[in-house]
Amino acid sequence: MRAIVQVRLKEGVLDPQGKAIEAALASLGFSGVGSVRQGKLIEIELSETDPDAARAEVGRMADILLANPVIETWSVELAGK
Amino acid sequence: MKVALLVFPGSNCDRDARVALTRLCGTAPLDIWHAATEIPGDTDFIVVPGGFSHGDYLRPGAMAARAAVTPALVAHAGRGTPIVGICNGFQILTECGLLPGALMRNASLRFVARDVHLKVERADTAFTSCYRAGACARMPVAHMDGNYFADDETLARLEGEGRVAFRYVGCGDTLGPANPNGSAHDIAGIYNEALTVLGLMPHPERACDRRTGGTDGVPLFQSLIEWVQ
User: Which one of B133, B168, B190, B218 is most buried, counting C-beta atoms within 10 A?
Assistant: First the structure.
């Protein structure tokens, strides 16, 4: 089973990298771009086959290491093989 | 004098800290490798040096804050052993929860390496008793992620409890924008609640010799030495 963890900056946390992407898109002529926020995507291969157990395990990983709760939130999606 | 110097894979300011501490203390600090699980109980103070521990992967300081040595560091903090984290050391101390907030990417998105001026907010702590309160100290910064962030409530608490240790200011000769990284409230360094843990982005250990960058970092280590004697 594969877990996909998305880590995002919390609302209200300034994201200079997102701002730079926003400015770059505008300079490339993409009009109609509102705000851009940059996050992280972490893919984890798991030996666990039970979705609930996998979700709980990955949640612990996110709480302990993958995200910093001061500035980030996370969400997890599970995918089959 | 027993000083512990933590060393992680990718630490690169540990040598400068070792040279400064050896000269000021008269004895070399004890190097503690990240895989160690103990820091001697009779350690007088602990220095977490700068660098790029674990390549800054995931987030600066994130991996180091989960190292084998971290529980021993946290235990010492609980007993009131003074701990100073410099640059990446500051990032590690926020990541392991000994200091509030987080160090984010510089607002300029550029690595900044130059001297800055710091206002010493108070001179009655283990780290600043050899400064004059309100003094302006000049030290180098060298970082990509020094943009201090905390929510408004935390910032208000830090200010209200006198826990801002150093603030970027413009004083005397112009060195560029006073705040090099966009940090909230121009914060360069903060204390924990007990004023026994200090994290700061500037490098006092690189300002301990008049031939190489001045001596405004000396009072910080001198304060610690006098404090624990």
Answer: B190
The answer to whether B208 and B20 are in contact (CB under 8 A) is yes
pLDDT at B105 over 80: yes
Here the CATH number for the domain that contains residue A24 is: 3.30.1280.10
Task: Measure the CA–CA gap between B155 and B120, rounded to whole angstroms.
Answer: 18
For residue B152, the chain A residues in CB contact (below 8 A) are none
Considering the candidates B13, B25, B87, B208, report the single residue annotated as catalytic: B87
The conformation of residue B106, written as its DSSP 8-state character, comes to P
Beta bridge partners of B155: none
Active site residue B38: no
The boundaries of the domain holding residue A9 are 2-79
The one-letter code for the residue type at B76 is H
In chain A, the number of structural domains is 1
- Beta strand spans in chain B (E): 3-7, 30-33, 45-48, 83-86, 102-104, 112-120, 136-143, 147-149, 164-168, 187-191, 197-200
Which phi and psi angles does B150 have, rounded to 5°?
-155, 160
Question: Is the full-model pTM beyond 0.90?
Answer: yes
Q: Which CATH class is domain B3-228?
A: alpha beta
Question: Do residues B76 and B104 make contact, with C-beta atoms less than 8 angstroms apart?
Answer: no
Q: What percent of chain B has pLDDT over 70?
A: 100
Question: Look-up: residue for tokens 């540990």?
Answer: B14
Sheet holding A40-45, edge to edge: A40-45, A2-9, A72-79
Kindly report the length of chain A: 81
All structural domains of chain B with their residue ranges: 3-228
B68: distance to nearest CA of chain A, Å? 14
Q: What is the pLDDT of residue B144?
A: 97
**Residues of chain A with pLDDT > 90: what percent?**
90
